[in-house]
Amino acid sequence: MNIMSRFFPVVVFAALATSASAQSRGVSVNAGGVSVAVAENSVVVVPADVVNEEYERQADTALASAQRVLADGDYREAAQLFGRVAERYPRSTQAPEALYWRAYALFKTGSGSNLASALTSLNDLNRLYPSSKANTGDAGNLKIRVCGELAKRGDEACAADIVRAATTTSTNASAGTSNRTTTSQGGSQARSCPSEDDENDERIMALNALMNMNSEAAVPILERTLARRDDCSQGLRKKAVFLLSQKRSPEVVDILLKVAKEDPSPDVREQAVFWLSNVRDERVVDLLGQMANNNSDPAIQEKAIFALSNTRSEKASQILRDVAQRETASKGAREQAIFWLGNRRDTSSTAFLRGLYARLTDKDLKEKVLFSVSNQRAAGSGQWLLGIATNERETIELRKQALFWAGNNRAATVAEIAALYDRVTDKEMKEQVIFVLSQNSRDTAAIDKLMAIARSDTDREMRSKAIFWLGQSRDPRVLKFLEELINK
What we know:
The chain is an all-alpha fold. It is built from 26 helices and 2 strands. The protein has a domain at 425-488.
């Protein structure tokens, strides 16, 4: 064979491919044999030796050019360029990538016709290059996204496939799917169990698409998902709980209540309890009350107490008060209840916390009450905290805590705290007053009192501490004061 006859088929191929590109209405390739259909009524015969280094190099250059256009955000132009790569270099290693990226670019445009073309491109990828890296990688996930958008636009075939993908129990990625949407492009392959926030897992994506597509029709499917008990269903059940929580209806409340009570996974039950906190239903408060009083599952108990704190009803408040004062409740549960009562900002909660303090013997619980009362900033709370601070029957640590929270949470005024310095006789308490004043140095009353202590207190150590904290202030009066001390 002479050189001309050897390369003649290549020339014919190039010429025909160029002509076909100009006439093509889409991309339809066949990489399994030597025939490649590139346009209507056009068939190019590709000799076996046409796939050579130069052919691969040209395909790689063309693919890189298309990817640069994609990176610039010109999705329509990029889709056309990727399509040309698939047309002109069907037997290259770049052809599968080109089909994938063409589908991605078309998907990003968002138009209905382009979405249909994207789905066709992905189906071609799966049919022509089933074992390619492009097909066994993210193509299945992209197909779910594309079909999800088409389903929202009324594509019944895609809607059916989304339902199948959302309800499948098989780990065989290709089982039970149609030609329109094969959930995993590469055929049969094992997948790891998904977590509820794994947005790249096609099963999670299918649940999302299902809810966006038709929330009414999605509820029964989500309920069936929640009934699953196979090893890989936990992440799907958690996702189903979240999706259901976005739809407010009595039916959904019933489902979430059942999950919160019966699901075998503590994580799934916790998720259900968390989302029930947004539901205004007396049945929810009753269930949360049972969980809040159950010490056998601390994690669920904590979630239930939090959920009750978000429920603005007197019944929920009473449950929190009961947990806070019940001596048989776990210490952690009581601390949580006290903390959340401090966020309710109602007079009954304030009165309860002040009364509870006098009955408590546990130091940690008392500290929680001090913080919660200061956080409420209710009328009289500052005076109550300062009363604890000056009560010599209390431990020094609790007195210091009461003073700190009174100043830090602005429950008491700076003037009230400054006046306290001359009333206490204990050295540690005087030091604490100086510290609390230093944390309120933007108030002129705090600086005035610190300068007075530094200037005239009879205790040299107290004067030194006041000077130290004054040195941290940016008040311009302090500079002049310190200069006076230096020149004294």
